[in-house]
Every structure is written in C-alpha cells, then in structure tokens.
Amino acid sequence: MDVHDRLPSGWSIEALRRAAAIAPRRARFAIARLVLGVIMVVSVFLVEVPAALLWFVGGLTLMASTLSFVVKAAEWSVQVPSLVCDERPKWGGRRFVAWRCEVDGLSAERVERLISDLVRRLDEDAGPSERIGDATTTRIAWGLGRRPSIDAGASGSRRGGDEIADGVWLRIDRPEAPALPVVTVLATDGDAAHRVRGAAAAVDGSS
Predict the structure, then answer these.
(1) How would you class 135 by CB atoms within 10 Å of its CB: exposed for 0-12, middle for 13-18, buried for 19 or more?
(2) What is the mean pLDDT of each run of 10 residues along the chain (207 residues)?
(3) In whole angstroms, what is the distance from residue 180 CA to residue 111 CA?
(4) Shortest CA distance to 193 belongs to which of 120, 99, 115, 118?
(5) CA-CA distances (angstroms) from residue 129 to 99, 169, 170?
C-alpha cells in the first residue's frame, strides 16, 4: 500500500497521460481552453484599448480553468489502495498527520482484508490495540507503550490533563452496501506517523 504525504504532481507527463486516458473528452476540452487562452494573451496587442484588458483577462481565465484538470490528474495518479495525507492538524500543542485510505474500485471484501492486514501490522509494531465501536463505526487506537484512550472524535489520546500522548488512531465507517468502508488514520507526527507509514508500506495492496 502506497503512502502519500502529499498528492503527486499533476504536471508530470505520466500523470497527464493517465488522466487523458481516464477522461479523454475532459482532456481535449482542457487543451482547447489552454491553447485558446494562450492565443488570447499573446494576441492582446492586436486588440484595441480598452477591449485589450478584457481580452487579456479572458485569456488568463481560460488558462487558469485548466488547473482543475491538473488537480484531477494528480488525484488519478494515486494508485489504489493508498494512504493519502488530508491535513496536518494541531491539537494541544501537538502536530498530527491525518490520512484517508483511497479504495475506489476495490471490492468491500478486499477493503476489509486491507484493513485487517494494516491493523495486524500495527499491532505487531505499535503494541496491542484498543477497540470500541459498533457495526457501523469502529475506532482502534495504539498507545505506543501506554494504554490508549479514544475520544468521541477519535482525534487524540489524553494523558494527565490536556497533554496528548503519542499514538495512532484508525477509524472505520461502514455505510450500507454497496458503498465501501471509509477508512481514516490519524497519528501524532514523529514516531507514531513513521509506524503508520511502515505498516502501510508492508501491506500487500495486490491481495
């Protein structure tokens, strides 16, 4: 399972080719807007003032509109399954890393196997886990040597007042079929985050 602390660049040739193969019509429209925008910007001196300003702004707008395709190209370049960093929030003076698990296109059974494998590898590396939840939402925490606790939002483990302990928190939301489970992973930045990366990298995404 790949781990991305940021989305790959959508400007790479490989990413753009993959995006063009996935959405050829969208790619053609993006190229057309880019070419037309460049022509408008380059030819702005051929247009009389004050229309030249509108011509120039229109060209820049067309060129900027192609960025949405580049963003999609970056998203489509992520191989499934992968952990992709959503954000790096800060609570209680501690920095966290939050990943979402990209599983689009996989079967629900395969997603469950991936989760089980990830949990097993974290159990081996980070120690025994603590689990709470029900049939729809399960939260799992690893305290990295301390007994973990899980708050209502699975957002941190508190030890002694407001101090947040090092840990890893995994949340699994299981919507009604045929929707796939939604998996999010949160870890304190540093050793805990490294353990998540190592465990995910050891998961066989092809199984």
Answers:
(1) exposed
(2) 75 71 83 87 77 83 84 71 86 85 83 90 87 85 71 44 72 85 90 92 75
(3) 8
(4) 99
(5) 19, 10, 10
